[in-house]
């Protein structure tokens, strides 16, 4: 009986201690939320900013601007705050403290805040990005609610940028959020892309605006990630991140690529999120209030922007946005992530490469006894280590359909000729490159091409780790 009584009092004591700690943390958070947001040195909450358009909220051009700046904390100090560090504890465990600090000190611009952009911005905020610029000229509509990240019915009719800012300030009030109810175009380029952003997210539907933004980012040397068409699709497993030149099945990206090449001489080098799935439905005819087919351009706020005529399953643009946020997060933190090739070789191609290796070994060494890989391991080497490309051409531009074209000129050869052909000693090269490789040594490569040598040894080291060699 005495033991039960002691245990009871022990539990009560632990519960009280835990409750006190939680209460202190909650009070600090509430105190910061109540005093943290300022607009132009005037205390203001984001809800009021989205509905009150006074002189302090209008630019000289008449657009609405609202800037939420946290009190008493700057980006470099955020992770020292106990509430913020607990909010981001899982990220810190994943990235490490210093890598998460890079994210927290980052500045990201998100242009286009619909189904894709709102989800991308939301996850960047939740992941601790310290400064966000949110840009969109449009308002929340009832039809937005099937795919928007945070909008509610109460937000219908309010600008998307200010809607996000209002909700974001309740999620991560320490983030510096600037909301611009503004259309991106040539006249607003300097204003929106200034400030040296660490990343720009293009989540725009309109082709003219999209092309202008991407060209401006390339010209300014800014990192940009572009979202292609997410409407009329249903298969989340076919979403990819790759160079825009590989997004061949997407009608929007086809038009964007053509315009970039024709008008700006840009033939790739821009990462994009797109789906390999062909659209499940075509653009629908626009019906007015009478139920009759009408001209959508009669209802457009801005010429060229589509009006309610794209069938959209809300999950797909949301996943697009999540993919964009994940890509940007890993880039900002410095985490190396190799995206999967757009088009995978089928089993017959791996069999061809395996047979080619056996024939090469017999020709060069008189037998294939030291080939210690099977077809499945060849698949791992080609796909996971070398991404279907020559070890001497590991740029992101050489992915996708080119893998099909190039398989007839690729082969596996030993990296170090003194060691057997194992998963950790095989590189993928073109025929001519393989001949050149066979005529040299790893020591010679290390001396003359140290960067290439280090890259290859790092990749092969990963094979040792994966196979516990």
TrEMBL record:
Cited Pfam families: ThiF (PF00899)
Membrane topology: Multi-pass membrane protein
InterPro entries reported in the protein's UniProt record: ThiF/MoeB/HesA, ThiF_NAD_FAD-bd, Ubiquitin-activating_enz
Domain of life: Eukaryota
One MF term in the entry's GO annotations: ATP binding
Residue stretches making up the THIF-type NAD/FAD binding fold domain: 89-340
Transmembrane segments: 9-30
Signal peptide bounds: none
Gene Ontology BP annotations: cyclic threonylcarbamoyladenosine biosynthetic process
Keywords: ATP-binding, Ligase, Membrane, Mitochondrion, Mitochondrion outer membrane, Nucleotide-binding, Transmembrane, Transmembrane helix
Intracellular or extracellular location(s): Mitochondrion membrane; Mitochondrion outer membrane
One Gene Ontology cellular component: plastid
Entry similarity comment: Belongs to the HesA/MoeB/ThiF family.
Function: Catalyzes the ATP-dependent dehydration of threonylcarbamoyladenosine at position 37 (t(6)A37) to form cyclic t(6)A37 (ct(6)A37) in tRNAs that read codons beginning with adenine.
Protein name: tRNA threonylcarbamoyladenosine dehydratase
């Amino acid at each position: 009986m005495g033991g039960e009584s002691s245990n009871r009092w022990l539990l009560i004591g632990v519960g009280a201690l835990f409750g006190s700690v939680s209460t202190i943390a909650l009070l600090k958070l509430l105190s910061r939320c109540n005093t943290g947001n300022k607009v132009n040195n005037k205390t203001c909450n984001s809800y009021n900013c989205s509905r009150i358009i006074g002189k302090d909220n209008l630019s000289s051009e008449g657009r609405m601007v609202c800037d939420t700046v946290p009190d008493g904390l700057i980006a470099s100090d955020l992770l020292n705050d106990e509430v913020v560090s607990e909010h981001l504890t899982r990220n810190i465990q994943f990235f490490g403290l210093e890598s998460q600090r890079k994210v927290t000190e980052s500045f990201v611009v998100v242009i286009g805040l619909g189904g894709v952009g709102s989800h991308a911005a939301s996850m960047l905020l939740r992941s601790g990005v310290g400064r966000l610029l949110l840009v969109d000229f449009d308002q929340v509509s009832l039809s937005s609610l099937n795919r928007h990240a945070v909008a509610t019915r109460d937000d219908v009719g309010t600008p998307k940028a200010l809607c996000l800012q209002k909700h974001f300030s309740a999620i991560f009030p320490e983030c510096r959020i600037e909301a611009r109810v503004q259309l991106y175009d040539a006249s607003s380029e300097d204003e929106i892309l200034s400030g040296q952003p660490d990343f720009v997210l293009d989540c725009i539907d309109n082709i003219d605006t999209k092309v202008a933004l991407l060209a401006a980012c390339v010209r300014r040397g800014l990192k940009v990630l572009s979202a292609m068409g997410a409407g009329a699709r249903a298969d989340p497993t076919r979403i990819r991140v790759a160079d825009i030149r590989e997004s061949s099945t997407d009608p929007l990206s086809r038009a964007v690529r053509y315009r970039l090449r024709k008008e700006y001489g840009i033939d790739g080098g821009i990462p994009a999120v797109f789906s390999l799935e062909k659209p499940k439905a075509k653009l629908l005819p626009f019906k007015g209030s009478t139920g009759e087919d009408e001209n959508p351009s009669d209802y457009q706020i801005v010429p060229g922007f589509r009006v309610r005529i794209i069938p959209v399953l809300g999950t797909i643009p949301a996943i697009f946005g999540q993919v964009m946020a994940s890509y940007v997060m890993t880039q900002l933190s410095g985490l190396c992530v190799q995206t999967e090739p757009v088009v995978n070789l089928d089993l017959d191609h791996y069999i061809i490469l395996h047979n080619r290796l056996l024939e090469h070994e017999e020709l060069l060494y008189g037998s294939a006894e030291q080939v210690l890989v099977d077809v499945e391991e060849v698949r791992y080497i080609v796909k996971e280590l070398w991404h279907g490309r020559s070890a001497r051409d590991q740029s992101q531009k050489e992915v996708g359909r080119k893998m099909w074209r190039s398989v007839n000129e690729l082969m596996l050869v030993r990296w170090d000729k003194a060691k057997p052909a194992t998963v950790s000693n095989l590189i993928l090269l073109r025929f001519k490159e393989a001949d050149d490789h066979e005529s040299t040594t790893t020591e010679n490569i290390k001396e003359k091409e140290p960067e290439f040598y280090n890259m290859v040894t790092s990749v092969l080291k990963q094979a040792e780790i994966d196979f516990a060699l």
